[in-house]
């Protein structure tokens, strides 16, 4: 079963974090949530999450996917953490999936994972002038190579479902989506 790491930084966007955790677990993926700091994580709107582990406990482990929730100051906290940069570099070197939503694609940009790629993010999160080698799109979800990016809280379900399809298959995605009772699904 594919393993997924979701690092939880103080100030992360709770809608994105919880949607990712919930939908990926509904698909029966092994999801590990890891706090950047010991103790509960207070999200951008005051919701408190308790991670499965501290990041130090799994920072050297291999994962099929590392996915970064956005929000502020969560994305900034992820970007400042050298362990996150090391994890992302190892993902790329091993040709494994990396993903980010909302403000978190800026972390992928600062790590160099978006160089020469198309991506999306919350408007303005990735500075086009600072990163002219990135083609910024306004699509809900963008896949380029082994990197997946998404726009924000409103695209969190589409993002999570796309990750399920990439890690498993379209049938698993459809099975999870059918139980969500989404309009038009």
TrEMBL record:
What CDD domains does UniProt report for this protein, alphabetically? GATase1_DJ-1 (cd03135)
Swiss-Prot/TrEMBL keywords: Repeat
Task: Answer yes or no on keyword Ribonucleoprotein.
Answer: no
Q: Which Gene3D superfamilies match?
A: 3.40.50.880
Q: Identify the residues that the record assigns to the DJ-1/PfpI domain, covering every copy.
A: 3-165
InterPro entries linked to this entry? Class_I_gatase-like, DJ-1, DJ-1/PfpI, Prot/Nucl_acid_deglycase
Pfam entry (one) = DJ-1_PfpI
A GO cellular component annotated for this chain's UniProt record is:
cytoplasm
The answer to whether UniProt assigns keyword Repeat to this entry is yes
Q: Identify the domain of life.
A: Bacteria
State the protein's name: DJ-1 family protein
């Amino acid at each position: 079963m594919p393993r997924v790491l979701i690092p939880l930084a103080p100030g992360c966007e709770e809608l994105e974090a919880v949607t990712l955790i919930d939908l990926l677990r509904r698909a029966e993926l092994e999801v590990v949530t890891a706090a950047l700091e010991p103790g509960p994580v207070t999200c951008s709107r005051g919701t408190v999450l308790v991670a499965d582990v501290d990041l130090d406990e799994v920072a050297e482990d291999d994962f099929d996917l590392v996915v970064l929730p956005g929000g502020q100051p969560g994305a900034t906290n992820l970007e400042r953490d050298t362990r996150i940069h090391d994890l992302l570099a190892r993902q790329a070197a091993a040709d494994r999936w990396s993903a980010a939503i909302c403000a978190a694609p800026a972390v992928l940009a600062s790590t160099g994972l978006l160089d020469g790629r198309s991506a999306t993010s919350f408007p303005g999160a990735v500075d086009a002038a600072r990163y002219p080698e990135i083609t910024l799109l306004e699509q809900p979800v963008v896949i380029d190579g082994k990197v997946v990016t998404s726009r924000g809280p409103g695209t969190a379900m589409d993002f999570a479902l796309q990750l399920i399809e990439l890690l498993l298959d379209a049938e698993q995605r459809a099975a999870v989506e059918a139980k969500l009772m989404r309009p038009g699904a």
